[in-house]
Fold:
Amino acid sequence: MSQNSPPAHGRTGTDAANGEDQSTWDAKGFYNKLAPTKKPKTPNPQNAITIAVSSRALFRMEEEQKIYEEHGVEEYVKYQLEHEEEPFEPGAAFPFVKALEAVNARLRELYPESEELFDVVLMTNHHAQVGVRLINTINHYNLFIERFCMTGGRSLIGYLKAYHTNLYLSSDSGKVGEALGEGIAAATIFSPDKVVEVSDTQLRVAFDGDAVLFSDESEQIVKAHGLDRFFEHEKEHENSPLAHGPLKGFLEALGKLQKKFYAKGQRLECPIRTYLVTARSAASSGARALKTLRSWGLETDEALFLAGAPKGPLLEKIRPHIFFDDQMFHVEGATEMGTVSAHVPYGVAQRYKKSAAKKEPAGGK
Structure:
């Protein structure tokens, strides 16, 4: 027994002299357990990089969604109340959120007073009564998510804007399209067909180029005039930067945090790694993509030009926490190989409604 431990009966001689009995010790022990564990300070949304995640993207809620669709909101709420002590299983966005928290932990070590951190906000249009089960689940997995928006069926757009959202992930393609239409970076997330282990110490994010980081200018040329004219167009405009695409701002935010690690001499140990994974070929159209990033003052850690080859096998080697692409056949190929992928329904290449019927987004629906 340690010198500082109370005797088996729960009190010391000093306690007895002070008139403290066993019941006093029991009461102290009870209230000490109730004392909240100190958590990091939640950053101001104006300073943070805000990642809004829907409940069905973060957790698996297929069974609950089925009840909602088949029996309505009252049965849905009843089921949630009856099962609110049962945590949901992790969903497609769960490893990504855990990786964000790992980056935050490193940033807090280096910059204890800084609010330039990831701030995860849980966004759902579910009834507020579901909130208890969501809170219990978040506590079960020890996630640091302090901000919730449960809108009871109302549009999320106003809340996404109020939180200065840098990225919105949802399993609902309609909500994602609405967010993109309002200028908010957004994507529909899909669960992989198999489980592939990802890093728990380094956040890895992979981006397609055209219609994701860049505008869909070049894809418009392909659709209208074919590949030969596309190659000519890219050569002619090699030194003209492409306009920005919907996720350019998110890459910019990641780069800003990376530079905080570089400033501390931790470039090689940086817990954020970014990838450009594009169907472009390096020789005929790669230079414009790289020069566009340079003109923005941005870079990716790796640039992979596949010249039309499937992306899935390469992504399986990279093992990113999330991969963004505007074309569903690339998303489907990636998920088949075990990569959590997110569809960005933006630009001329959209044939989403036909292709999406082949695969269900994360969390159902």
Notes: DSSP finds 16 helices and twelve strands in the chain.
